[in-house]
Predict the structure.
Amino acid sequence: MDNEACEKLYEAYYMRVFSYAMTLAGDRHLAEELTQETFFRAFTKLNSFRGQSDEVTWLCAIAKNLFADEKRRQGRAGAMPEEAASREKGVEQTAVERDASFRVHQALHALEEPYREVFELRVFGELSFQQIGRIFQKTENWARVTFHRARAKLKERMGEE
């Protein structure tokens, strides 16, 4: 693939892949690394892309595999440190936002797979149900049903708190 085509692919899908990586990692630095590595791998392996799915679906699958590899490495080397809180916000506002965010992430974390990942792909990764189905090698309808069940479970867990 020539440089111009690589640039177009990068510009077209960078934010979607980054959003998905951010959903997986929950850490901006790691998400940026995953996104860059995803595009590097895609550019070097473009000849192996069979076109059976959308390009963004293929890129998200690469990112998912890279994230799984990273988690395995972390398991051997220990957890990565969290990023520091933003200094632009007031201390009280930051504390409230962190608490709310923590409760949402706690409820998300408690969701069983594949509910959690499907929910995150749809909400944070902004993927279509068709794309989510392709990532899981399932149907679009499966992705819709799984998402709606995940949302119901999440509402139930958030209501319990």
In short: Residues 80 and 107 are 22 Å apart (CA to CA). Residues 3-25 form the longest helix (23 residues).
